[in-house]
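Model: Ready when you are.
Researcher: Fold this.
Model:
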Amino acid sequence: MHDLSLIWAGIVALGVFFYVMLDGFDLGIGLLFAFFPAKEERDVMMNTAAPVWDGNETWLVLGGAALFAAFPLVYSVVLSALYLPLTFMLVGLIFRGVAFEMRAKANRTRHLWDLAFIAGSATATFFQGVSLGSYIQGISVVNQQYAGGGFDWLSAFSMFTGLGLLVTYAVLGCGWLIIKTDGALQRKMFTLMRPLVLLLLAMIAAVSLWTPLVDPAIAARWFSLPNLLYLSPVPVTVMICTLGIFRAVTRRNDKAPYFLALAIAAMGYVGFLISIWPHLIPPSVSLWEAAAPRSSQAFTLVGALIIIPVILAYTALGYWVFRGKVRAGDSGYH
């Protein structure tokens, strides 16, 4: 039973990380849209993500389906606790998706679809971060049901993590645009990368210091000996990657900034998993307590082992087919 629960926890964790890695950069492009008002620049920015953005969201669907199949208690409790922020997130994703479709066809109303793209991206990202912060704070569970109120998710900490995710996705979007563009637009992205990374570093430091104050168990895990020594590679790796980004920007290396920024995001994600382990509903419900019956986990695992390689294959194929730089005048999104 424990082995299947661990496998499914790994699948959920992997799905969430792939979502952050892939949909993070195209949400970040929407955030950066606000700072680049020129139509030609916005067209190029949009076209870098247009062929792959909808496939990126497959991982969000996979994560939700995996929770429902393997950890139904988590699905019911967490969705009840975070009903409003997740609803706002979905509204943002809808506006962002419709803007992708409509902007390419619109002429007189293009500026409105640009605004929808920016607002949808910002709303979806912010409320993902709010949901994350509320989840870390802990969710009240009594008799395997959500026992809190409709606005327990609303706190200073969750608002701050929402802002932190905005910065994270903006950094990923900037790194992606450095890879996919050239000329004046790429130079602007190189210039923007340094202050964004410094802001991200400040956000990470603030969340890292604030999180232990939210839950004493997290403080004990990170700041007691010998755990402090064992877990020190996480912040050290963040610092090394930050220095690597600065060096890559100076040398005009167009691939390293994105992948190093992704490594920073991965370290943040690892830190989050370490903080909540072994709970799937912090601070009290472990992944084994939240698990579905063994027969259900085994049956659905067969389907997962078939579908996940298919998703990985068509995702890789999509990025391979649409590899290379995107320039002004290239065919748009149709």
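Researcher: Now this one.
Model:
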Amino acid sequence: MRIALFTETFLPKVDGIVTRLCHTVDHLQRIGHQVLVFSPEGGITEHKGAKVYGVSGFPLPLYPELKIALPRPAIGYALEQFQPDIIHVVNPAVLGLSGIFYSKFLKLPLVASYHTHLPQYLQHYGLGMLEGLLWELLKAGHNQAALNLCTSTAMMAELSAHGIERVDLWQRGVDTELFHPDLASSQMRDRLTQNHPESPLLLYVGRLSAEKEIERIKPILEAIPQARLALVGDGPHRQALEKHFAGTNTYFVGYLRGRELGSAFASADAFIFPSRTETLGLVLLEAMAAGCPVVAARSGGIPDIVTDGVNGYLFDPQADIQDAINATIRLLENKQERDTIRQNARREAEKWGWASATRQLQDYYEKVIFAQQARV
């Protein structure tokens, strides 16, 4: 099978969407398929044997890490040379629109997938009044597809409620070798606690951006005076967060990758995740695979992963942050319960390998291709 994949974000950017796409491309290539990735230009021309066609663009003003790549005729020439069997558009917004156009022009089956809950992001950038318009645009784009994949049951329900049709679930996945409890290390704990390894270590990993609501971790940190907080990642909100957390035991680590990131998860006592805008929260699954107990908002796709009191803790993000404080204190004070949570979290993660998620995607592709051929 030859798959043309259009995405608004790809390497060298690091986030949950890119992680999923990289593993998906890798596994599709491994099982004999050919993938051509269209993405904003980032200096990457190949990934795991798949060609990456970089399209020049410009930084998004509100989020300079993201590039807007505008459709152009050269994309059509590249597609005609590649001769795909199917087009898959990921979060179609700008570049993805050319994938939708060429699926019609070349009469190719189209799959779309929804990974970023953009309508909720608007609230955090003072653009909430555009939410209704954005849903209409999303509906117009996604309803061109024969199949719309979501990464959680909550997002399936939300998209369906807003008139997006032919919705199904693309199962979660995690690298259970890269993220493993055995990667815990005293050196990493020293680093993340800034040489206070005896202190409780709270961890956040992800984009430092407004919609992640990282400010909500501060009252948890202040309620546990001896605790240290490590924020792993970077983004447009870093400067504001540095001011917000000034005077607290907070360390801005920057990006970690590979085994270093796996070691950070495995070396922490609790992973705190206050975001209410997650379509899934892949980073939670990575924490769980590493045996790091999770305290997360009961919102979006997160309850698909975390079962409260069994493999992590959930708090009500609409209520007072005291819920999250209580859950974190309980986790830190009860070693036996913490160990049980760690073991259950690892067991949950072990169910969700990337190979299985990619086989499921392959099955979806085959059904869509077969259905289109049957109509011709």
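Researcher: Key takeaway?
Model: The mean pLDDT is 93.
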